[in-house]
Amino acid sequence: LAIIIFIVTLFQLSYLPSETLRDDWVSVRLGADQKEYIDAKGVHVVVGHYMGDGTNLNQPNLTDEIINTNNFAPLPGEGKDGMPVVIPPHLSGKMHSLYLINRFNLMASDRIPLNRSLPDVRKKKCLGKYDNVDGLPKTSIIIVFHNEAWSTLLRTVWSVIVRSPRSLLEEIILVDDASTRKFLGKELDDYVSALSVPVRVLRSKERIGLIKARLIGAREAKGQILTFLDAHCECTKGWLEALVTRVAEDRTRIVCPVIDIISDQTFAYVRSFELHWGAFNWDLHFRWYSMSGEELEKRKLDRTQPFRTPAMAGGLFAVDKNYFFEIGAYDDKMEVWGGENLELSFRVWQCGGSVEISPCSHVGHLFRKSSPYSFPGGVTEVLYGNLARVALVWMDEWKDFFFRYSPEADRLRDMQQVRSRIELRKRLNCKSFKWYLDHVWPQHFFPMPNRFFGKVRSIVKNKCLEKPTGKGSLNQPMGVATLTPCSRSKLPPLSQMFVISFKKGLGDEPGSLEGALMTDEAVCMDAPDRDDQNLTPRVKIMACSGQKRQLWRYAPTRKWIEHISTGLCLDLPKDGSDQNGLTLNKCENSSATQSWLFEEVPWR
Ligand code: LR7
Ligand code: MN
C-alpha cells in the first residue's frame, strides 16, 4: 500500500497540467471527488479523480483473463474531433473495474475508433509555415511500451500514419518492453504487418525499462531523424513537419511538441498552453512553469516561433540520430522510468546543443494520476537511483544540495557507477551546471554562491516565513505569506528556505539583499504594485512572474524587508497575529514587527 500511495503522489505531484475547466461547462453534480459538467453542446464531461487515484484499488479482482482480453470495439463517431466519450450509466460498474487495469478509462478508449479525427489546434500563423517538406530527411518513429492497452497503442500508431506526410515517415518502431498481455504478441505482429507504413515490433524478453527500450529502437532505426512518442499519444495535423524542419535546420537541436492532454476519464482531447516551458524543482522532479515575462515580451511579435526550454518532459521529441549517439544517447545504467529526461536535457545544453518546444506541433498525451505497472527494484530505488546519476554526472556543486535534502537519493549515491558518463562529459568538453543555470535558465530558484539561502525570521515571533501549501495553476504552491515556528534542525524543512540575491554595490553593507524572494517550485513573495489606501495589501507567495511587484530589498542594520515598487515594509498585521498572512505598512524606524533576520543555511 505504501508503494501505491507513493506512486500516486509521485504522479499527482508531477507534471499533470492544471485540470482544464472550460468556462462554458456547467456543473450539474458534485460528488466527493467527482465533478460532472455539461458543456455548451450538451455533452457530458466528467472531471476529477473519481477512480484510479489509489483510494479504490481494492476493488473487484481483475483476473488475468480480463487483463489479457482485448475489448476494443469501436462505435462510429465516438470521440470524434477529440470529443469526450460518454459511458451509459448501466456500464458504469464495468467501466470502473476496467479503469484499474491501465489507470485510465479503458472502456472509453475501446469505444473510440483508432483513426478518430482531432481538431487542428494550431495557431493560424502556423498554417503553411512548415508545409514544404521537400528534401527533408525521413524519421523513424519510436514507441516503447510495457503492457499498453491495444486501443491506446494502436491509436498512437494510427495518428502517426494518418497525420504525417508519408515522405517524412521512414518507419514506425514499436519496442515491446516484456509485455505480458497476450494480445500484444502475435495479434499485434499480424495487425501491424498489414498497415501502409512499415511497422516493426522489436521485443525485449526481459523487462528493461523505457530508457533501454528506447536505446534498442534508436539503434535499429533507419531514419536520419528519431522521433520518440509514448505509447498513448495522438498526433495532430502538422505535428511532424514542425519538428523535422527544425532538426534538419540544426542537427544539435532537440525539438519537442506542445503536449496536449488526453483525459484519462473521457479521452477528450484538451488543448494545453503553448507558453509553458519545462524545468524541475529542488527534488529534480520535472515541472511546467510559466515563461518569464521578459521571454513573453520577446515573443509578442510571433508566438509561433519555437522557444528554448531548460528541460523536456521526456517522452515526445525529435532528434538527429547521429547527433543523439554522438552526445551519448541515454545513460544505459538508468532503470525502468524517470530521470532520463533531465539527464538528456542537461547533457544537450551543457554540451553545446539546445532543447526547444515548437508551438506549431501539438501532440496529445494521456496523462494518468498513477502508474499502472510495477517498478522492478522498487519505485524509490529506481527513480532516485536514476536521479542520483543525473546529479553525480551533471550537477557539480548542486549535487550536494540535492543529496543534502533528498535522503532517498543520498542513500543510493554510493552504489552508482558513473565513471563512463563522467568520461563522456569530459570527452565532449561540456560546460558546467553553473553555466546551465546562468544561461539556459536564469529565472531558476536554486541557491547560488551570490545568493542568500536560508530562513527568514521575524524578530518578535521566533517564527519564519513559510511556503504555502495551497495550490495555484500549474500546481504551484500559492497562498498568503504566513509564518510558522522556525525549525531548529540543522536540516530545516525546505518549506522554510528562501533564496534571494546578495547586493554587492558600492556602499552596500555586507549582507544586503535585493531581488525576488524565491523558493522551490518557482514561487515568489508578491505584493500589489501600488499602495492602495483602502486596502492593506496582502502579501502572497505565488508563481514568480519576473515583475517589479515581486522585488524586495533588505539591509541587515535596518532589518526592513522593503517592497521596492511601493517603498512599503513587510510587517505583521497590527493585531499582532500572523495567521491571516503578512502585510505591508509604511516603514518605521526600529519597528519590531518590521524587523527580520535572514539566517543562512549551508547548501553545499
Ligand atoms: O518499464 C517501462 N517500460 C516501458 O516501455 C515503463 C514504461 N514504458 C513505456 C510506457 O509504456 C510508455 O509508453 O514508456 C513510456 C513512458 O511511460 P509512462 O507513460 O508511464 O510515463 P509518463 O508519461 O508518466 O512519463 C514521462 O516521464 C517518463 C520518465 O522516465 C518518460 O520520460 C516518459 O516518456 C514521459 N512522458 C512524457 O513526457 C509525456 C508527456 C508528459 C508531460 C508533460
Ligand atoms: Mn506517458
Automatic annotation (TrEMBL):
Transmembrane segments: none annotated. GO terms for biological process: protein O-linked glycosylation. SMART domains: RICIN. Its cofactor is Mn(2+). It holds the Pfam family Glycos_transf_2. The keyword Transmembrane helix applies. It is found in: Golgi apparatus membrane. One of its GO terms (cellular component) is Golgi membrane. Residues 453-599 form the Ricin B lectin domain. It comes from the Eukaryota. Its EC number is 2.4.1.-. Keywords: Disulfide bond, Glycosyltransferase, Golgi apparatus, Lectin, Manganese, Membrane, Metal-binding, Signal-anchor, Transferase, Transmembrane, Transmembrane helix. Pathway: Protein modification; protein glycosylation. It is a single-pass type II membrane protein. GO terms for molecular function: carbohydrate binding; metal ion binding; polypeptide N-acetylgalactosaminyltransferase activity. It is an enzyme of class 2 (transferase). PANTHER family: N-ACETYLGALACTOSAMINYLTRANSFERASE, POLYPEPTIDE N-ACETYLGALACTOSAMINYLTRANSFERASE 3. Belongs to the glycosyltransferase 2 family. GalNAc-T subfamily. This is Polypeptide N-acetylgalactosaminyltransferase. It comes from Apolygus lucorum.
